[in-house]
Design brief:
This protein is α/β, with parallel strands linked by helices and 328 residues long. It contains ten helices and 14 strands. Strand 10 and strand 11 form a beta hairpin.
């Protein structure tokens, strides 16, 4: 770390390991009638690099749209929240999107405590290194652990908390699960505290399917990284080229679903687990959902989670939203 000791603190809850392991996920998911693997398994070192490439692709609009709103509307967001503010972020990663909000808050108050929560200790340190230089008024008090454990350990504050959940991460949950998570999360907050949540919007099928199945094949390689992990970490006898990436938008449900589809009849042997997994040609492994919302569905999310939707900001092309939910 380049930052000074009084600028940066880390509380490691040791809960990152509570996430389902690769081995457990493979046994559970590949022996089910409808095969699946959880999307958190994408993000080993190789997968994280591939995702960074995805965010730079022409087809992948969410990152640019999200950053546009945060850059252009940061002062409005902070004013709507109501300073003085303590900033909390779920899944902060490198914290690059957070900088405009940090600077907008520091225009209105002398100091700021920033409380990023992430399962990756390296990402937390990287984020602190990107934010702390040239911001002597900023203090980073990071929590390494699961979201709900991290929120529960925030402790008391005299300031209003603004909890960021950016980048459309909420889309990895179904709408009922998203509402349930917010109901649980709000228990760690005080009346008047708020969530700012990045939510991708429903739009044309062609735009959405291109965003998750780009012409360069980067998203396909990202999806197939799960097969590389099976081969490299579990010793699976699997050929990634024997599977193809599929991304399909369910218009009625408003969800993009990603799959790995077997190109032929085959058996994947995973000797370290004593497992043989048969596939028929065309059989799919479900790997990720990305739920999209209408503005009415965002309003219903607030109702279902017991929060109040105060304001929604859109990017210039109305593709993406940032919504402010208040805890009553």
């Amino acid at each position: 770390m380049r930052s000074r000791p009084h600028d940066y603190e880390l509380l490691d809850l040791g809960t990152a390991g509570h996430a389902e392991s690769l081995s457990d996920a493979v046994v559970r998911g590949l022996t089910s009638e409808r095969k699946s693997l959880p999307c958190h398994l994408f993000y080993d070192e190789r997968g994280s690099r591939l995702f960074e490439r995805i965010t730079q692709l022409d087809e992948y609009y969410p990152t640019r749209a999200d950053e546009e709103i945060l850059r252009d509307r940061a002062r409005e967001i902070v004013a709507a929240t109501g300073p003085p503010i303590e900033l909390v972020e779920l899944g902060s990663g490198s914290s690059t999107k957070t900088a405009p909000l940090v600077d907008a808050i520091l225009e209105l108050q002398e100091t700021l405590d920033y409380r990023p929560i992430d399962v990756s200790r390296a990402a937390l340190e990287w984020g602190a290194d990107s934010l702390l230089p040239d911001r002597p008024e900023l203090r980073v008090r990071a929590v390494c652990g699961d979201y709900e454990d991290g929120l529960a350990r925030l402790g008391p504050t005299t300031r209003r908390r603004l909890v960021l959940w950016l980048g459309s991460s909420i889309g990895n949950l179904t709408r009922p699960d998203a509402a349930a998570f917010l109901r649980r999360a709000r228990r760690s907050l005080a009346p008047g505290d708020a969530f700012l949540i990045g939510i991708d919007l429903r739009k044309d099928r062609a735009v959405l399917e291109a965003a998750y199945d780009d012409a360069e094949g980067v998203t396909a390689e990202f999806n197939k990284n799960l097969l590389h992990r099976l081969r490299d970490e579990l010793g699976a006898h699997v050929d990634p080229d024997a599977f193809v990436h599929r991304a399909v938008y369910d218009v009625e449900d408003g969800t993009v679903r990603m799959f790995l589809e077997s190109l032929r009849d085959q058996i994947v042997r995973i000797e370290s687990l004593g497992l043989e997994v048969p596939f028929t040609a065309g059989e799919r492994v479900h790997t990720e959902d990305s739920t999209k919302y209408s503005l009415d569905e965002i309003a219903r999310l607030a109702e279902d989670s017991g929060t109040t939707l105060e304001r929604t900001w859109l990017d210039g092309e109305a593709r993406f939203s940032e919504s402010l939910f208040r805890r009553g």
